[in-house]
Amino acid sequence: VEKFDPERGFRFSTYATWWIRQTIERALMNQTRTIRLPIHVVKELNIYLRTARELSQKLDHEPTAEEIAAQLDIPVEDVSKMLRLNERISSVDTPIGGDGEKALLDIIP
């Protein structure tokens, strides 16, 4: 509100909408992951994931890192590195096995 300048010819609602949306996106990027990633990394990862979803629909299979890299015209190593950041994280207290009596922590040496 303090930075809004009506002299620039924009309506306040237009100005406020952008800032509200940006604040919500930042909060989601900072709080939805178990391990926080920097904002610029999350934005880049989202580009890769969006491309992977689009390719998946077009190719009727999950795209490989090579296919994503070719679509984005970037090195495969960069895609592989970013996709590793999106892997699922498990708690050491996660039950394992069919009976669920042991936790992951019980089998880690």
Automatic annotation (TrEMBL):
Pfam families: Sigma70_r2, Sigma70_r3. GO terms for molecular function: DNA-binding transcription factor activity. One of its GO terms (biological process) is DNA-templated transcription initiation. InterPro entries: RNA_pol_sigma70_r2, RNA_pol_sigma70_r3, RNA_pol_sigma_r2, RNA_pol_sigma_r3/r4-like, Sigma-70_RNA_pol_init_factors, WH-like_DNA-bd_sf. Residues 1-34, 44-108 form the RNA polymerase sigma-70 region domain. PANTHER family: RNA POLYMERASE SIGMA FACTOR RPO, RNA POLYMERASE SIGMA FACTOR RPOS. This is RNA polymerase sigma factor RpoS. It comes from Vibrio parahaemolyticus.
